[in-house]
Amino acid sequence: MRMESNVIELIDENNEVVQFEHLLTLDFGDREYMVLLPMEEEDELDSDEGGVVILRVEQDDEGNDIYVSIEDEEELEEVFQAFLQVTGQAEAFGDDEEELFDEEEDR
After folding, report:
1. N or C end of the chain, less CB within 10 A?
2. What span, in angstroms and rounded, lies between the C-alpha atoms of 25 and 23?
3. What pTM value is reported for the model?
């Protein structure tokens, strides 16, 4: 992982570098999560995908941070709701919240 200001580069499942804007690191329960916004290329701006990516921060055997996709839908929803509360956007999303969350699940 390489960080420049608030830009994070991660390697996806296709071994391609993907850039994200780091929105915030969130302590929720006894775990830490990173909320990221994909940085889209100009030709991808018209795509239907959007929304934030939430990754759980864990440590490998050597104590280095690793970022893990959240498989548990309930955990993901709880962290997403906490993100909305922290950023004061809970009311702003209203009906659109479910659509944004569904797009996040597809990642």
Report:
1. N
2. 7
3. 0.69
